[in-house]
Amino acid sequence: MTKKILILTDFTQACYDSVTYGLDFCRYYGYAAEILHVDVGDYYVDEHERTRIMELVALYRGKMRHSVEMTTREGDFAQVMGEVTKTGQYQMIILGTHGRHGFQSLTGSAAARIIVLQDIPVVVVQSKKFMPIRLALLPVADNIEQYADEIAKMSHLTSILGADVQLVCRRGEEGIAATVSQYFGRQIPVALSVDYCKDRTFSLQAIEYGEKIGADMFLGFSHEISRPVFAPVLEQLIFNLALIPVMCC
Q: Which pLDDT tens digit goes with each residue over 59-80?
């Protein structure tokens, strides 16, 4: 059975970009695609953007090896997402970001709930053209043992994508590479050891390095917590000005 990628849209310009990215991702890696819009009833839909995205989907149907479906579901967003993703047929979710304002500082937003509470990886895309995932950077600024389950998901998916993974850590904590490598089941080298800097946070230094070396993706942790807000590291990765997509596990 062909695995699918679930691509979310709210029929906005940001989602046009992320749907394009998602369809190119599926086309390159050989996945089926399902584009989902959840109609929550009181949300304004830009009909121009809806038409553009539907035309885009129609165009890609003629280019893909596997199916491209367009689905609209009505109801509570979180409930619909729970029902849709529990089937186990999706390899990941791809969604677009409108920037900090669109996420409403993340707290309580539908996007935040998806990223934090889903069991499958969620890739957050800004207005970035798709590129094959050759190199993914994993910034680690915390106790790595608590992320064993998340790293297992990262290991599985990056192996499928054929991506190399490199580690960014704080200076003096290079020893965690051995633990990360154990969880991945393959050698994960340290690409950068970050010194303390009062002007640039750990995350910003990781982002600057990722842009410098041309990283194709960041890997971020989104473990279950009591309410859908992000740790500062993940939040800064998601809104990186280099527009590098972020896979949240």
A: 888 888 888 988 888 887 777 8
